[in-house]
Amino acid sequence: MPTVEELYRNYGILADATEQVGQHKDAYQLILDGVKGGTKEKRLAAQFIPKFFKHFPELADSAINAQLDLCEDEDVSIRRQAIKELPQFATGENLPRVADILTQLLQTDDSAEFNLVNNALLSIFKMDAKGTLGGLFSQILQGEDIVRERAIKFLSTKLKTLPDEVLTKEVEELILTESKKVLEDVTGEEFVLFMKILSGLKSLQTVSGRQQLVELVAEQADLEQTFNPSDPDCVDRLLQCTRQAVPLFSKNVHSTRFVTYFCEQVLPNLSSLTTPVEGLDIQLEVLKLLAEMSSFCGDMEKLETNLRKLFDKLLEYMPLPPEEAENGENAGNEEPKLQFSYVECLLYSFHQLGRKLPDFLTAKLNAEKLKDFKIRLQYFARGLQVYIRQLRLALQGKTGEALKTEENKIKVVALKITNNINVLIKDLFHIPPSYKSTVTLSWKPVQKVEIGQKRASEDTTSGSPPKKSPAGPKRDARQIYNPPSGKYSSNLGNFNYDSCSEEAEGSVPRSGLWS
Fold first, then answer.
1. What are phi and psi of 325, to 5 degrees?
2. 80 to each of 69, 222, 372, how far by Cα in Å?
3. Where is the stretch described as Disordered (predicted)?
4. Which of the residues 169, 327, 352, 375 could staple to 294 if both were Cys, CB 3.0 to 4.6 A apart?
């Protein structure tokens, strides 16, 4: 084994040889042997081996293996030095192998070492993106679980930091191709990360690109299979996939397949749904997703059938008024609870799909069914008016900090819900029913458009990608207001009816803050 002095002497030989350095193979071999020495010898070898690596292609394998031995040394300082120098070995056909090695090294628990590996990977990414992706995806598909997990997270966090000249169209196509292979067998968390990776690619921000992503999500959601409401994994997979699909939908990328599946398979089983997520109101979560998707539903084959299923589900949450005794008092029947959160979602979805079949209520329902629905609407509207007045009174005069208390935040959201329902009910009381009003769902932020500002088209099929619109709201943000059944429901007494057949407003009264 060479000594420190011998290592320095042979380094000098190679350094002084300039253009004839390749003729001193023995000197380089002695430096390679330095990895078998003590701590000082190994530290020198970690620096000297990469410096002259390119001059000895016949010793490439030996040199890479020697450096790899140093990357796995017990001494953390030696490991860090060896990892730092690894990008110098990433030349030609050696690059995918170096990328593979660095990907495996992501499993380190040493934070400084982990950062060095990340930096080294980014460094070789800029040299040859395709070769680096080859090493990363090789480990994602075949590596150990911890390596797979960290390689996926590396892609999800670092790709967006790379410049356009690195992430070319060809590189993005490779990412999509390799990702499809991985998506054949992924966990829920991995699927979310890959959707984050793919949705960030410029080439997939066009209409056709987003359509590809929707098809990927639909395949993952297994929409061809019969839905099993009693299988928590089946339910969770559908929700995870739908959450990923929702931000992709637009006027040109339709949600029809998902809306159809929800109407045909999920709504009839709403009360039977099970979920592995503790504390999640699974029924409300499903109805929220359906409401968000309904705005972008295209032409539906079985529109009338699915609209009827949606209508029947809405009726379940729109109770008939309790019977009254001859003296006008309650005959003893318990007052029904009004579940405003559920009704907002169902009524909004019905309103959106009803636009596609505007004569559904008047021509597709028999007279008794329509009369029954109007009685339910009227009864719900009476309770709604009272509750809106109560909320407005409770929030009257409150501004700034006063509106930020938990209690008042809840009231503000409740007021949004009730205002939305009020506008939609007024539309349905028109003769014939109208579907013209526009509301912003209570859990969604209000879109502010500057006066005079033209809205840029969000879709493009040209080579220049559009400005990226903000991603859909995070799940946590959407879950802030998940009232359990009845939390904001009132037992209705004998209310004075405020006519709901007056002219429908064109937009929702936007009171208070969005939380």
1. -75, 170
2. 12, 45, 75
3. 452-494
4. 352
Closest among 139, 209, 227 to 169, alpha carbons compared:
209
| Percent helix / strand / coil, the chain, rounded to 5 | 65, 0, 35
| Peptide bond before residue 509 is cis, with ω within 30 degrees of 0 | no
Strand partners, 324: 330
H or E element, residue 455: none
- For residue 126, give both structure tokens: 């800029």
Q: pLDDT tens, 419-436? A: 999 999 999 999 889 999
Burial letters 348-387, b for 16+ CB under 10 A, else e: bbbbbbbeebeebbeeebeeeeeeebbebbbbbbbbbbbb
Phi and psi at residue 330, to the nearest 5°:
-60, 130
Read off the amino acid at residue 419.
Answer: N
Please compute the mean of the pLDDT values over residues 356-372 and round it to a whole number: 90
Residue-wise pLDDT tens digits, 51-75: 999 999 999 999 999 999 999 999 9
Which of 251, 263, 280 has the alpha carbon at shortest distance from 223?
263
Virtual CA dihedral for 163, 194, 179, 467, nearest 10 degrees?
A: -40
The contacts of residue 21 (CB under 8 Å, 6+ apart) are 14, 52, 55
* Token digits of residue 225: 């299979």
CB 482 within 8 A of CB 339: no
Smallest Cα–Cα separation from 472: which of 510, 444, 438? 444
